[in-house]
Amino acid sequence: MFDRPMVTLRPLHYSGEVSDPGAGVFGAGAHTDYGMLTILATDDTPGLQIWTGPDVASRSASNISNANSGGGSWGEREGAGAGEEGAATAGGRWRDVEPIAGAFIINLGDMLERWTNGRYRSTLHRVINTSGRERYSIAFFFEPNFDAEVAVLPVCCGPDDPPRYPPTTAGQHLLDKYAATHAGYHGPVKKGQEK
Q1: H or E segment at 174?
Q2: Is 23 exposed, middle or buried (0-12, 13-18, 19+ CB in 10 A)?
Q3: How far apart (Å, rounded) are the C-alpha atoms in residues 15 and 27?
Q4: What pLDDT score was predicted for residue 161?
Q5: Which pLDDT does position 182 carry in this prediction?
Q6: Which of the residues 7, 52, 53, 170 has the least number of beta carbons within 10 Å of its own beta carbon?
Q7: What is the pTM of this model?
Q8: Domains of the chain
């Protein structure tokens, strides 16, 4: 399951532009990570926020995409939170994750949520800039083998809690997530086919 893991190391740079969640301006809009586990190293510039509070059942790519295209923050659209830093509505709140020197931030992803039948939830997070400084981080995405089975673990379900997710493979799970996120993408435009 982990003898040929899928791993990605992604350097991230966020501009010094101050975010305006109400106008849809983010460093990164609200999202969950698709895979199993993300390990994040960051500089001393704040900006990462996590959602704490009531969960919203639907976290579809289209909902998140709409939130990031000027419709306000994820929480504002769903009535679950506010776009202003630290503001709260309906019992939820965006919380700042303060950088700690020498520490890593660990985010659980959608694949781990699937394996645990929702017992461990993927971390809904976003990046906003309130400091006006550039921000740098490095994300390490760790996934099992492409062909590893992702089925609800027997200890995470029972007669009163049946599996909420059908079995799949790690690779198919990721491909499905990418396809949903990029549903309108049909590949590069070839020369002579421009509109």
Answers
A1: helix 170-181
A2: exposed
A3: 7
A4: 96
A5: 84
A6: 7
A7: 0.78
A8: 6-181 (2.60.120.330)
Other CB atoms closer than 10 Å to residue 147's CB: what's the count? 11
Per-residue confidence (pLDDT) for residue 92, from 0 to 100: 86
Structure tokens at 80: 């679950």
User: Mean pLDDT for each consecutive 10-residue tract of the chain (195 residues)?
Assistant: 97 95 90 97 96 62 38 32 46 91 97 97 95 96 98 97 98 94 75 66
Kindly state the helix (H) or strand (E) to which residue 114 belongs, with its residue range: helix 110-115
What's the start-to-end Cα distance of the chain, in Å?
Answer: 46
At 158 the pLDDT is 96
**One-letter amino acid of 183:** A
Sole residue written with tokens 């995409």: 65
Looking at beta carbons, which pairs linking 149-154 to residues 24 or more positions away fall under 8 Å?
150/111, 150/114, 150/115, 151/115, 152/114, 152/115, 152/116, 152/117, 153/115, 153/116, 153/117
Hey, how many other C-beta atoms are within 10 angstroms of the C-beta on 174?
Answer: 22
Q: What are the pLDDT digits (tens) for 59-112?
A: 433 343 334 433 333 333 233 333 444 444 567 899 999 999 999 999 999 999
- Give the C-alpha separation, 175 to 184, whole Å: 15
Torsion of CA 43, 46, 51, 53, to 10 degrees: 120
